[in-house]
Amino acid sequence: MKRQIPLIIIITLGFMFVAHSFIPHKISTDFFDWYQDWVKAVSPFAVSLGIMSLFMVHGTKIKRKISNWQYSVITLAGLVFTAFAGFMWGTQSGTPYMWLFENVQMPMSATMFALLAFYIASAAYKAFRARSAEATVLLIAAIIVMLGQVPLGAMISKWIPESSTWILNVPNLAAKRAIMIGVGLGMTATSLKILLGIERTYLGGGD
Amino acid sequence: MFETISNFVAAFLTLSIFSFLYKDNPFYKFAEALLVGVSMGYAIPLVYENVFMPYVYTPIFLNHKFIIILPALLGMLYMFRFSKNLGWLSRYPIVFGMAIIGMSIPMSLHSSVLVQMRSAMLPIDNINTALIFIGTVTILLYFFFSKAHKGVYGKVTNVGIWFMMIGFGASFGYTVMARISLLIGRIQFLLGDCLGLIK
Amino acid sequence: MNKNVIKLFDKMQNIDRRYIYIVVALSIIIPLLIPFNSRTYVTKPTEDIYKKIDSFAGDETKAILMSFTHDASTMPELFPMEVSVLRHCFERNIKVFTICWLPAAAPLVDYALNTAKEDFDVQSGVDYCNFGYKPYVLRLPIMLGMGDDIAKAVETDSQGRKIENLEIMKNIKNYDDMNLVIDFAASSSALQWITYARARFGANIAAGVTAVMVADNYPYLQTGQLMGMFRGLKGAAEYEKLVDVFAAYESKDYPNGRPFSKEIIKETRVPITGDTVPYKYKKARIGMNAQSIAHIMIIFFILLGNIGYFITRKKEL
């Protein structure tokens, strides 16, 4: 019963939503309004999962003094202090909470992604090899598109941005469209499997 | 003065992350640990103010809409996710939130499949539409793995591979642009906001 | 081939990658320190968004919604687009709403609004309204709910005010009025707007995406499901130019901006060196200079790496 009742819930509600997509009757819209109010009340508690997980993982590291456990102290201290700052002094602009976001989180998360530029340059030099005809075609297309996006490409020749546009509008379009149709069919199949109770991985392990 | 200190802190943390390019070091590890903690801690008051208060506290305690107590109790069941004996209780809020997937079946079928198929079935009146049609069909045939890619069928799917390589080349070109843009943003911050060299 | 040349390429193939990092850093730092004027060519996907937004100018019964679905990591590409769109709306008296779905996006919305509104006499709740942060799990119900009644679906704005009481909501009920949604994201989140808001309610959807997602969104552009698209930093640079040339243009004949014209945008060059345009409104165009040099550098690395590979492979054979 621990798995059956959730399955019954998702099958019932899921098919009601399928029907709601096609039925404009008041009963259908009332059902959707009811769901909206309830899901808004359920949602804030999901953040507790993230907090609990973080405390469990880093708490264990600190307790057992696993290598680099000192950094787990910093993680938990950062979490507690930021949350405390938000509750104590508010979340408006000019508060310690927003200062932490603007001067600690924002720069660091932006920099994490900026590192990728270096790796892509390194990969371009060391790993991108035209080992086959298909790989050569891939690299040529990439070079044309890269040049087509920058003003320098248009200065070299007007054919570069035009070729870049053609690559995006014809072969790239065909490739992405076919992949999209495949993904769309796959998504529909997976959603149907969830709705029919065949796909149950979201229920997790155990009874 | 305060802005200078703020910029200094942001620049120090930025350079700590960049120091990873030389090699892994305590500054990078410190910055990484701090990022994880602050990111999670940042979400908590925001969710409390923007979600819990207007959608749970206000309806129940101020508007006396006591029926909302039921979904609030349902949401609290999330916390049993890590319990060995009572973990099954966390399935209820999960399935309740997921139920809307029923709407995605007809709608994603429409947007991702039917509209795309309709657009691929245009009259073939010039070389470009012919190429788009051939490319779409050959790639779809390529992804049909129930039939061995041999003989004529193999040659047809090979055409699809060529189209995909050009498509991936275009994606790679744009990916390079994206990554470089992110680095440009950080360098603009360091040179402009911190050192005042860009105006 | 000369043994020394082969030896040189062999050495270069095994070069420490930290030297490559230095070249990358210099190729971006130098163009930023020494800005130069380069031409920004405006393309159709960006033009279409500009024309659509401009068609709402001065119309009290129309508005646009800017949906922020990204965090600070993708700000360099998306922030200039957002500021340009807001600047366009404030210049041409177009009602604009903003909403975000990630906790980290909430201050970015405020930052964009504060940056853009510095030069304009606009009021929250009258000229613009920030719906604030709504959790991602509520995205679908709110997206669908806005098709019937925006005030009912969203309820409160970022300052806790009831939306139905705000002056900006006069004549704005649902997607028929808030007729253009621009989704700024680093993912394929525009697909959700297309699937739910466009398919069901006929809303016009545009996307402001990071360059990574551009190629994947082309099928939607071609079918018309997306009426326009900002393509990374280049798209931001194009829109900055469009706003400078048309919306922010002032003359005796056009005191509040001039209408879009393909001939004018083709011929007009907007210099970014000097004080012609405030820095915050030309960030993307300055960035595109560095982008040009960096792209040349990457292409050079690819070619050099492959030349070295073929030469050293020949030596082994």
How would you describe this structure to a colleague?
The complex is a heterotrimer of chains A (207), B (199) and C (317). In chain A, 79% of the residues lie in helices and 0% in strands. Chain A has 207 residues and is mostly helical. In chain A, helix 3 (47-63) packs antiparallel against helix 4 (69-89) and helix 4 packs across helix 5 (96-126). The model of chain A has no long low-confidence stretch (mean pLDDT 90). Chain B has helices at 2-18, 26-62, 69-76, 91-98, 101-120, 127-142, 151-194. The radius of gyration of chain B is 27 Å and the shape is extended. Chain C has 317 residues and is of the alpha/beta class. The longest helix of chain C has 34 residues, at 283-316. Chain C is globular, with a radius of gyration of 23 Å. Chains in contact: A-B, A-C, B-C. Chains B and C meet through helix 2, helix 5 and helix 7 of B and helix 2, helix 4, helix 6, helix 8 and helix 9 of C.
Give the terminus-to-terminus CA distance of chain C.
13 Å
Please report which band the strand proportion of chain B falls in: under 5%, 5-15%, 15-25%, 25-35%, 35-45% or over 45%: under 5%
Give helix % range of chain C: 40-55%
Contiguous helical run count of chain C: 12
- Roughly what fraction of the amino acids of chain C lie in strands? 5-15%
Overall 3D shape of chain C: globular
Largest sheet of chain C: 6 strands, parallel
Q: What is the rounded distance between the termini of chain B?
A: 20 Å
What is the ordering of alpha helices and beta strands of chain B? HHHHHHH
Explain the layout of strands and helices.
The complex is a heterotrimer of chains A (207), B (199) and C (317).
Chain A: H1 4-22, H2 26-42, H3 47-63, H4 69-89, H5 96-126, H6 133-149, H7 151-156, H8 159-169, H9 171-195
Chain B: H1 2-18, H2 26-62, H3 69-76, H4 91-98, H5 101-120, H6 127-142, H7 151-194
Helix pairs in contact in B: 1-2, 1-7, 6-7
Chain C: H1 3-13, H2 17-33, H3 44-54, E1 63-69, H4 75-91, E2 95-100, H5 106-117, E3 128-133, H6 139-145, H7 150-154, E4 180-185, H8 190-201, E5 204-209, H9 211-223, E6 228-231, H10 232-247, H11 262-267, H12 283-316
Helix pairs in contact in C: 1-12, 2-12, 3-10, 4-5, 4-10, 10-12
Keywords:
heterotrimer; B: 199 residues; mainly alpha; 7 helices; extended; C: 317 residues; alpha/beta; Rossmann fold; 2 domains; six-stranded parallel beta sheet; 6 strands; 11% strand; globular
